[in-house]
Design goal:
By secondary structure, this protein is an all-alpha fold. It contains nine helices and no strands. Helix 1 packs across helix 2 and helix 7 packs across helix 9.
Length: 197
């Protein structure tokens, strides 16, 4: 039996088959959550935005352009909602990424621990937890327009064309932003390593 594509599942959902939507949620929620947690720096915000994103998919499903692919459309919705969240977060207190989850700071996990990813960063595999933490903290402090293109490209392996679609920018802008983001990351990483010594 062939596995249905995302586009087929959405079409089934539009025709009234609710299990198509449930499968889309199960299929994409984990990756969408990781993207949003890295992008916003907040696990709580990521959880909320995943729900808001799928609610928007439900509300806009009938208007989906069937000549497009579903996943870039989904990530476009999520990125827009994440940007809205980041613009409004100055009005609400934020919990830092290195804050502990739960009351026991000695034994509990930190929010950063939930963002762990075994995939390689641009410069190769990150060898230990201290390096991973350094990389995550640098990415979290990057300007939003650099962070989003870096996360989509290196963590989620979106092709340039799909990144352009998700971010609603020209292909050339994606390439120049990614080049600048990698340079920014490299400069921040080298500075952080020098401070350690």
């Amino acid at each position: 039996m062939n596995t249905p594509t995302d586009e087929q599942l959405l079409a089934d959902y539009i025709r009234g088959q609710s299990d198509g939507f449930e499968l889309l949620v199960r299929r994409h929620s984990p990756e969408l959550f990781r993207f949003l947690a890295r992008f916003t720096g907040s696990v709580t915000a990521a959880e909320d935005i995943v729900q808001e994103t799928f609610l928007q998919v439900h509300l806009s499903a009938a208007g989906f352009d069937r000549t497009r692919r579903f996943k870039p459309w989904l990530f476009t919705i999520a990125a827009n909602k994440a940007r809205d969240h980041l613009r409004s977060r100055g009005r609400r207190p934020e919990v830092p990424l290195d804050a502990h989850v739960g009351a026991d700071e000695d034994e509990g996990q930190r929010f950063l621990d939930f963002m762990a990813d075994a995939s390689a960063m641009p410069s190769g595999a990150v060898e230990n937890g201290e390096e991973r933490e350094l990389v995550r903290s640098i990415v979290a402090r990057m300007p939003e327009h650099y962070r989003e293109v870096l996360v989509l490209s290196y963590y989620h392996r979106f092709p340039y064309k799909e990144i352009a679609e998700v971010l609603s920018v020209p292909l050339g802008t994606v390439k120049s932003r990614l080049h600048a983001a990698v340079a920014h990351f490299g400069q921040a990483y080298r500075a952080a390593v020098r401070q350690r010594v």
